[in-house]
């Protein structure tokens, strides 16, 4: 099984590796450059993040993990992570329709299982801590659908994607160049 970790240098590609027409058709805004190649400048941190990402996925349904990663990335407005995890979700068998509806999951509950809804709601509570602590009812709902070890892994996956999002947003990593399977560990 191939594990796709977050290579937030996309696949090592930079905007200069691509012709403008490849990602910015005529009339589209130009692609912005990344602020900082953080993974290259802090390789030990990057490698530790990759190991943490791989460890956080253990025992979890890969499609559920991608839904969590997409939802956290939507909330954090991390374009690179949205690009990467939408593509990984599709590669893992997720439908376009469910990915599209994820940003409006509360009105599209019928697209998801109760277990997925509990994970999505927990993702929002852990991601948006400025709204307060993770509510007891949100945690309890997740605990109803996940065994304790699985819940611990889910919390780890949510925490890890939030860390990746912060690296991606802070350094303005460029979306659009990731292809599922680019990264193998």
Give your account of this protein's structure.
The protein is mainly α and 185 residues long. Helices cover 56% and strands 2% of the residues. It is built from nine helices and one strand. The chain has helices at residues 20-23, 38-41, 43-57, 62-76, 79-91, 96-101, 114-127, 136-145, 148-170; one strand at residues 8-11. α4 crosses α9. The chain is globular. The protein starts with 7 loop residues before the first strand and ends in a 15-residue tail after the last helix.
Task: Give the secondary structure arrangement, pairings included.
Elements: E1 8-11, H1 20-23, H2 38-41, H3 43-57, H4 62-76, H5 79-91, H6 96-101, H7 114-127, H8 136-145, H9 148-170
Helix pairs in contact: 3-9, 4-5, 4-7, 4-9, 7-8, 7-9
The termini sit apart by: 9 Å
Low-confidence parts, pLDDT < 50 over ≥5 residues?
A: 1-5, 7-21
Name the overall outline. globular
DSSP helix count?
9
Helix content: 55-70%
Instruction: State Rg.
Output: 17 Å
How would you classify the helix and strand content by structural class?
Answer: mainly alpha
This entry's quaternary arrangement is: single chain
Amount of beta strand: under 5%
Biggest pleated sheet: none
What is the average of the pLDDT values?
A: 88
| Element-by-element helix/strand order | EHHHHHHHHH
Strand element count:
1
Brief sketch in words of this structure:
By secondary structure, this protein is mainly α. Helix content is 56%, strand content 2%.
Which key phrases capture this entry?
185 residues; mainly alpha; 9 helices; 56% helix; disordered N terminus
